[in-house]
Amino acid sequence: MKRVYKRKKNKILNITEETTCLHVYINRSNVIVTLTSLNGHVFCWFSSGTIGLRGFKKGTPIAAQKLATAIESKCKKVNVQRIILITKGCGSTKTIFIRSLLETSLNIIKCIDITSFAFNGCRSKKRRKI
After folding, report:
1. What pLDDT digit, counting tens, does each position of 52-99 carry?
2. CA end-to-end span of the chain, whole Å?
3. Which of 94, 113, 115, 130 is least surrounded by Cβ atoms within 10 Å, i.e. has the fewest?
């Protein structure tokens, strides 16, 4: 017998804080955006898949532009005034996402990059001799 699950209804957000954080994780295959409070409580999140893109299109700069417009419309609904932008990841998708976010009507206070990279790291494998 097949189980039937009921989907929970989305709650209406009442954000009382003026300043919120926008965490952006950019990967080769996807872009994930999370709107949180300064303490880290998640209000809402978006990804390239939730907008409707599938496959290799999720990691493209076009997906980043669509995400920026979706974030702008959501922030207008919940009355967010100021944003601290925290990005992680690299590539051309990140620069285009930041540019398209600056073109929107959102007020960005800070832009922080927390991308990690190895200084030396682990010892690499021995080279194969043929």
Report:
1. 889 888 888 899 999 999 999 988 888 888 999 999 998 889 999 999
2. 58
3. 130
